[in-house]
């Protein structure tokens, strides 16, 4: 079964909307009254309810290396997220390190999306000129590229998670824990 979800930002909260399931709510910091492992700074919590009483996963920054760790509510290690630096690179690289030693790597811009981008470039230039004449903030304009997180190995069946240009994420099969996919989707766009 394929998990499909989209990011949605309301005025006061941030949530993920899985297709055919209840929304996953994102809360800043750790749930109230829950202790965290030593040397971890809370970033955000993924919860099944708007109040945050039923956490699905807690994402923390480890003080030693600065990477994000995805923890289950009982502090079991689900994955480690490695993001690119805040300054924009040409093709940012994202990594998900799973507990079994498997590493999923994602680079923004797959070959088909880059070719589509080249075909649409003249239209985008007209759009950018219109954008400069309007009062829309530039940080709300997203990249029209697709991102795919892939497993090492053969050419077929490597994709563990994809993100479309519209912000829709797909996780085919049961190869990746849904809480890790949710955490990666939020961590990629989380503004500190």
Keywords:
alpha+beta; 2 helices; 12 strands
Main β sheet profile: 12 strands, antiparallel, barrel
Oligomer: single chain
Silhouette: globular
Report the radius of gyration as a whole number of Å.
18 Å
Give the beta-strand count: 12
Structural class: alpha+beta
Query: How confident overall, as mean pLDDT?
Result: 79
Helix/strand order, N-terminal first:
EEEEEEEEEHEEEH
Quick summary:
This protein has helices at residues 111-133, 178-189, and strands at 3-9, 14-18, 24-28, 40-47, 55-62, 68-71, 77-82, 93-97, 103-108, 147-150, 159-163, 168-171.
Commentary on this structure:
This protein is of the alpha+beta class and 192 residues long. It contains two helices and twelve strands. It has helices spanning 111-133, 178-189; strands at residues 3-9, 14-18, 24-28, 40-47, 55-62, 68-71, 77-82, 93-97, 103-108, 147-150, 159-163, 168-171. Strands 1-2-3-4-5-6-7-8-9-10-11-12 form a twelve-stranded antiparallel β-barrel. A hairpin with a 7-residue loop joins strand 4 and strand 5. The radius of gyration is 18 Å and the shape is globular. The model has no long low-confidence stretch (mean pLDDT 79).
